[in-house]
Amino acid sequence: MANKNTKPAPEAEKEQEVPQKPAASRKTFKLTTTHILWGVGILALLIGGIGMYQRFTEGLRPTALGSFVPWGLWVATYEYFVWLEIGSLVVFTLMVYVFKINPILHKMALTLYLTALAILAMALILIGLDLGHPFRFWHVMVWPQWNSLLAWMIWAHMIYMVVLVGKLLIEAYGKSARLKKLGIWLSYISIPLGIALVAIAGSVFSVVVGRPAWQGNGLPLYFLVSSLVVGTGLLTFLFVWFYPNKQEQEYVDTVRWMGKLLLGLLTVGLTAAALGGMVLLYPGIPAQAEALKTTLFGPLWWLYWVLHIGVGVIIPIFLLLARTPSPKQIGVAAGLLIATFIAVPINIVVPAQTVIGIIEADLVNSFFGPTLNAGYFPTSSEWLVTLFALAFGFLVFLFGFTVLRLRPRIDETSKEVK
């Protein structure tokens, strides 16, 4: 039998007194898709910053704009962003708050409002830089000239921005019943306000006396139809690719319903464009018909036939006309539509101005100077500034989606919906 008073060996004593420390866990960096997206966005912002530097140090000199073509890529892209922003929110609000269909869409409110805010940022950057003195924009707010449609457009856009930010904050952080009710009222207000903004944007072109191809009362309506088409495409794209629980049958049914809506609106848009084109061509008035001929058969014919009609219309229609299209098919169709629809505002803005070299050739050939050029193709500086705006909006969306976590809610409906 062992003696109770026997002391343990010194080595054993040491082992008992000094507890074993767990090995320190080292965090290994793992490159994720989010890191790659942040890197791409920041790199694009830095590259686009070269164009911003040129814009602020040399003004509009690095652009291809001039006396005959004062509106170019930036104005066309601004109009496109307005269509995207307003169209997606109007369609969403009508479906969710007015007709109360597809309740699963309620859960996309945060992501949609965040996307609209990012698009709005891009639009305001481009239209602001298109001005000769962008930092004087506040003059329109303080001393508006109400006989100018540009003043109406700026005021409408500023009010719409306040409504959009209010809706986003209420959806993200509003908890009281009073705030929820305010959010619902803001949603109702956003419908006529958004429609008015798109109509005003179209009217800005329609009242330009020196550009007959724009004149008439059909352009504001065409802008509205285009906004609904591309806005539905954006809403469908976001829902297909960002909704997390794709196994729900309700998700599949809603995606297919959205695909049918997109197909219907795309058909309406094509019909409106065809009717408008025939109205311009039938009388044979050169100032109007030549602009359309330039769009269809001019130097940038591929922009209309290949990019818009081929990739942005025919392929999406084939995908949407499938008997039972999958959500991925519908998502690809929506993505192709919104990626190529930029050709529509470019074909509205540019040919109507460059055609002056045909219908008023004597005037154009009588005077020569660096800004007296009837042709137009964006310069590298214009592309870089556009890249900067796109990167800025992309980073706004990425920050809201990954840091603020403004994502679809799969466990609850929108806070604004009772």
Question: Could you describe the 3D structure shown?
Answer:
The chain has 418 residues and is mainly α. It has a single domain (36-403), classed as Formate dehydrogenase/DMSO reductase fold, CATH 1.20.1630.10. It has 17 helices and no strands. The protein has helices spanning 10-17, 33-58, 73-98, 109-130, 138-142, 149-173, 177-206, 218-242, 249-281, 286-297, 301-320, 327-340, 343-349, 351-354, 356-359, 361-366, 380-403. It is globular. The termini are far apart. 40% of the residues are buried. The mean pLDDT is 89.
Question: How do the strands and helices of this protein lay out in sequence?
Answer:
Layout: H1 10-17, H2 33-58, H3 73-98, H4 109-130, H5 138-142, H6 149-173, H7 177-206, H8 218-242, H9 249-281, H10 286-297, H11 301-320, H12 327-340, H13 343-349, H14 351-354, H15 356-359, H16 361-366, H17 380-403
Helix pairs in contact: 2-17, 3-4, 3-7, 3-8, 3-13, 4-6, 4-17, 6-7, 7-8, 8-9, 8-12, 9-11, 9-12, 10-11, 11-12
In short:
The chain has about 425 residues and is mainly alpha-helical. The chain is about 70% helix and about 0% strand. It has one domain (about 35-405): Formate dehydrogenase/DMSO reductase domain (Formate dehydrogenase/DMSO reductase fold).
